[in-house]
Structure formats: C-alpha cells, structure tokens
Specification:
Rossmann fold; 3-stranded antiparallel sheet; disordered N terminus
Length: 230
C-alpha cells in the first residue's frame, strides 16, 4: 500500500495503550509514512527513571524529585535512521529499554511532578502539529483535542511474547515469566495511578493488534488518517 501525503493538512495523532502492545512501533511507522515528527513519550519517562535510579532519588521526596527534574535535559536525534534518546547529552537509547528501567518506570511516571514536566514538554513539541505521539495519557491529557486518537492493545500473552523476543534479540537475559510479571505490574500501576491513569477516552479508536502484523496495523491506521484529512 502506497502511503499518501497529508503534509498540506497536518494533524496531531495521539496513540495510547498498554505496555508492550506495539504502539511505539506503529507510531514510528506512521510518522515515517506521513513525514511527521515522532515523539517517544515512553522514552522520556524511561530517561527520567534512569536518571533517578543513577542518582538514587527517593521517589517520595518531592524536593529531591523537583531538583532532579531541573537537572534533566532530554533530546531526540535521528542516528542513522533511528530515533535515539539522549539524556543530558548521553545516548541512553539502549539502557532505557532494559528490564531494570522497565521495573521502575511506572512508579516514576505516576509522580505528579514528573508528569507535569513531561506533559509541558510534550505539548510544546506539538504546537506546529504534524506529529505522532504515543504514551499512556496522550489523548486524555496531553492532547485532548487531537484530531486522531488511537487506543492500541493486544492480549497479555502476546504482549509478553513480543517483549520477550525484543529483549532476547538484544542479548538481554530474561525469562518469559519475568516479562509477563513486569507487564502485569505495569498495567496495574498505569491504570490505577491517581495522576493521568491509562484509559481509553470516548473518541479514541480501539485497535486490537493481537492478530495483526506490522504492515496490517499501519495500513489500518493510515485509513483512519485518510478519513480525517480527506
């Protein structure tokens, strides 16, 4: 399927969903097909988590958290065709994907001060439209007026198998049981936290990709874009 160009009528595409459901894969492919900017909000929270872990920040200490946030600079650069996250000038793309960071990111993302700073940065990035942004609260909090909102999900088992394969392909030693437990923990924290919980808003289109391959998922999303942009 040849992707049409929508550059004359740029929109904001907000993609929310559970962990390891493939929303980032979809967001990247959609941004590339539309020549849009891709903003990886998950990487932003992971970068903050990595910084907190390195600095041994006590998550319940609001002063420590606030001071740490003022010391964090997050950038995204295209490195040989790959969207790469930099934390205070350091390439942390690989490290933020580790299970070590995954085990703590939902706890960090639940902190009100952290979410406030990240949401401000995300909204600033979307002022010119023509962006695809994925996360947990993009359609509900960051861009409630986004022209297209997608809520992506898949079965717990399939998400675990996908995540397990991703980690093992990178040479990370982990069991499938550990991955499934991590996903269940993150689902619970993301959906029950007080600040910006993960939820499907009324105007978000549900996309269950349990039985869709990457191309089928992209083609379906492009159809939704075409319906809006004409």
């Amino acid at each position: 399927m040849k992707s049409p160009s929508f550059s004359k009528n740029p929109i904001i595409i907000a993609i929310d969903g559970h962990s390891s459901c493939g929303k980032s894969t979809l967001a990247k492919a959609l941004a590339k097909a539309l020549n849009y900017v891709y903003i990886d909000t998950g990487a932003m929270y992971r970068a903050v988590t990595l910084y907190f872990l390195r600095q041994e920040i006590r998550l319940k200490d609001k002063n420590q958290v606030s001071e740490a946030l003022n010391s964090i600079q997050i950038e995204f650069k295209n490195m040989e065709g790959k969207n790469t996250c930099f934390l205070n000038g350091e390439d942390v793309e690989e490290e933020i994907r580790s299970l070590y960071v995954s085990d703590h990111v939902s706890d960090v993302a639940a902190i009100a001060e952290v979410r406030k700073k990240m949401v401000n940065l995300q909204r600033e990035a979307g002022k010119s439209k023509g962006i695809v942004m994925d996360g947990r609260d993009i359609g509900s909090v960051v861009f409630p007026d986004a022209e297209l909102k997608l809520f992506v999900t898949a079965s717990h088992k399939i998400r675990g198998l996908r995540r397990y394969q991703e980690l093992t392909e990178k040479g990370i030693q982990v069991s499938l049981e550990e991955v499934l437990d991590n996903i269940a923990k993150r689902d619970h924290i993301d959906s029950t936290r007080e600040v910006s919980p993960l939820k499907r808003v009324k105007d978000a289109i549900l996309m269950d990709n349990s039985h869709l391959n990457r191309q089928e998922q992209l083609d379906l999303a492009l159809e939704y874009v075409h319906q809006i942009t004409g």
